[in-house]
Design goal:
Strand content of chain A: under 5%
Radius of gyration of chain A: 21 Å
Order of helices and strands of chain A: HHHHHHHH
Largest sheet of chain B: 6 strands, mixed
Strand order of the largest sheet of chain B: 6-7-8-3-9-10
Oligomer: heterodimer
Radius of gyration of chain B: 18 Å
Number of helices of chain B: 9
Helix content of chain A: over 70%
Distance between the termini of chain B: 35 Å
Number of strands of chain B: 10
Structural class of chain A: mainly alpha
CATH class of chain A: Mainly Alpha
């Protein structure tokens, strides 16, 4: 136990630096995944058939490929085509894209729960499609989707560890480096696990708070 | 003001409107009565394009109800819903200014000042900053009426405005509607409130099996119906109410 505490004292500064990168990665990828998720949903409901077709294809393709392969593609293959991205940007893009299809499902479900009568009220008030989405469908749909978005957010937090494979110095990679150089696998991985757990708990609480604030009835 | 000519509407293989002819004059209060499934709500919903009719023509103030005319018609004709349909994520005041500000680009301050007046008119000014969920059904419906008035409509469609209310809340909504009628608002009302229709309506139309079976002055249709099916319907409804 004393050993563990000594190790923790020695390793925590580096691991906390990694945790900070993990959190930055989570926030950026989450924002991208939500924005893209909304895009897939809106395209999926467009009147113009090719938009719907693109949306469906993206979702099918992205969902069928492991996240790690998507990250490798963006980080190692795109440079061959002239697009050389810094690791962090590649990580945000890969995770954001991969998670956007789950967010699309969450948002679609939330939008499906929006009372048809409210959409009709908006139409009767003269709203065009854009205003209807901006003022009624999305704000209400996202509220309904909040519990599942929160769940997805915790999964995303943990899956940022995959970004360690493209040299991003996030929590898992910092830990790996420590473990390799000190051979203290037990202490290091226990600390990593605790830090992920500690980061995910407040996320759960945040979602609960948002749900309470956004509650309509 | 509102003219329907030979309007038909199908849902799948079920024909709910089978050639509806109806005209509502400016300033007139017309009540549509009829059994459930008779098509009376569908008539209302076709007028502002919530349902698209299959054949016949509908015009509002000379403008045809079609893709081109609909924006102009929705500006002139407001709707009050059975289930109120207030936006639950916006306060009472924001519900009322929603269309003036976010559809018709009125300055916020001006829209707000007018919304307060309208809320006062339906006796809801004290609740301007409440969320709809904090209100009773009757209060929500009065806000629904204020929201409709915010469009400065030339006519208002009421789709069973008191059917979702507790009995003791019906009166407060009918009172507001009575005042609107007295102010000369053109109103087309789908309702089961026969007594209200008798008192406030200029004309009553009885809808049965997708057509207007009988229409005439409220007193005539409701006290001395010409058609046997109108009489049967009234006997059922009045018996239930009495």
């Amino acid at each position: 136990m004393i050993d563990f505490l000594n190790d923790a004292h020695a390793f925590l500064p580096m691991l906390l630096r990694g945790l900070l990168v993990t959190l930055e990665l989570t926030v950026c990828a989450l924002s991208l995944s939500l924005a893209l998720g909304v895009v897939w949903v809106v395209m999926g409901r467009a009147g113009f058939a090719p938009w719907r077709w693109i949306s469906r294809s993206v979702i099918t393709v992205v969902r069928g490929i492991p996240i790690i392969v998507q990250l490798f593609f963006i980080y190692f293959v795109l440079p061959d085509w002239g697009l050389d991205l810094p690791p962090f940007v590649a990580g945000v893009m890969g995770l954001g894209l991969a998670y956007s299809v789950y967010q699309a499902e969450n948002i679609r479900g939330g939008i499906g729960a929006v009372d048809k009568g409210l959409v009709e009220a908006g139409e009767a008030l003269g709203m065009n499609r854009v205003t209807l989405w901006r003022r009624v469908i999305l704000p209400l749909g996202l509220r309904h989707a909040l519990p599942s978005i929160g769940n997805t957010m915790v999964m995303l937090l943990k899956d940022t560890s995959i970004a360690s494979t493209i040299t991003i110095a996030e929590l898992t990679r910092e830990g790996q480096l420590l473990a390799i150089s000190t051979f203290k696998n037990g202490s290091v991985y226990a600390l990593i696990a605790l830090l992920y757990l500690a980061a995910s708990l407040p996320l759960g609480a945040l979602v609960k708070t948002l749900e309470r604030k956004g509650r309509l009835a | 003001m509102i003219v329907l000519d030979g309007v038909t509407k199908r849902f799948g293989d079920r024909t709910v409107l089978k050639g509806v002819d109806l005209a509502v004059a400016r300033g007139e209060v017309l009540c549509l009565i009829g059994g459930s499934g008779s098509g009376k709500s569908t008539i209302l919903r076709c007028i502002n394009g919530l349902e698209r009719h299959d054949a016949g023509t509908i015009t509002v103030g000379g403008i045809r109800v079609d893709d081109q005319g609909l924006p102009a018609i929705r500006r002139r004709v407001a709707m009050v819903f059975q289930r109120f349909n207030l936006f639950p994520h916006r306060t009472v005041l924001d519900n009322v200014i929603e269309s003036p500000v976010h559809v018709h680009r009125e300055p916020v301050e001006q829209a707000r000042a007018r919304a307060i007046e309208l809320l006062a008119r339906v006796d809801m000014a004290d609740h301007a900053h409440s969320l709809p969920s904090a209100l009773s059904g009757g209060q929500q419906q009065r806000v629904g009426i204020a929201r409709a008035l915010a469009l400065r409509p030339e006519a208002i469609l009421f789709d069973e405005p008191t059917s979702a209310l507790d009995p003791e809340r019906v009166g407060e909504v009918l009172r507001v509607m009575r005042e609107l009628a007295q102010d000369g608002m053109t109103m087309l009302i789908v309702t089961h409130e026969i007594d209200f229709a008798r008192e406030v309506a200029d004309r009553v139309a009885f809808v049965d099996q997708g057509v207007i079976a009988e229409t005439g002055a409220a007193a005539d249709v409701l006290t001395a119906p010409q058609q046997a099916r109108t009489a049967q319907f009234l006997a059922r409804v009045l018996h239930r109410n009495g």
